[in-house]
Amino acid sequence: QSVLTQPPSASGTPGQRVTISCSGGSSNIGRNPVNWYQQLPGAAPKLLIYTNDQRPSGVPDRFSGSKSGTSASLAISGLQSEDEADYFCATEDANLHGPVFGGGTELTVL
Amino acid sequence: QVQLQESGPGLVKPSETLSLICTVSGGSLTGFHWSWIRQSPGKGLESVGYVYSSGSTNYNPSLRSRVTISIDASKHQFSLRLNSVTAADTAIYYCARGQYYFGLRFDPWGQGTLVTVSS
Predict the structure, then answer these.
(1) What is the pLDDT of residues A2-15, one digit of tens each?
(2) Dihedral Cα B118, B43, B36, A54, nearest 10 deg
């Protein structure tokens, strides 16, 4: 059971906008920034969003992140087939004194 | 461009010790948190722990009694030892560079290595 809660699956059609939620608590998202990782099939995770809403160089601006209170969201606009992947949120937890991850959301492009 | 590569046995017997090495190329080890993260088959990600370039460590509380992470800057490597393994430790083990900048983020990651615990 993951510390951060994500929906197990999400889907959308090409060109659509989808959002993936990440819910936590006062000991983690409520006090620390959130990062998002994209894991393409058969590959290692890759940093997608850091510090709630920042994109590393090379990440398209179709990807955006936000945080409010004890929840965070990842939004993907102009959905493309290559966006089909697992997405994980992550932050640090003050009670566990270390990094924690969400269970991951499998995104399907219909 | 920093790259990480895991190496070590892919099969470990129950009750024995899992040992992995991560070799870092293309950058310095100084100032970063060198991390091990695992992913059980079909499941989510779990932090195993990390070692800072100074040698200080942080471990997942659920694994703390069994895990040791160390660094050898002269070899551009850091390592993971997990003892008394069981089938529950079967996972893909990733090494990653952790950086604190308004929070801890992991980038880049190694390709991962599957470790199976079985007799």
Answers:
(1) 899 999 999 999 99
(2) 170
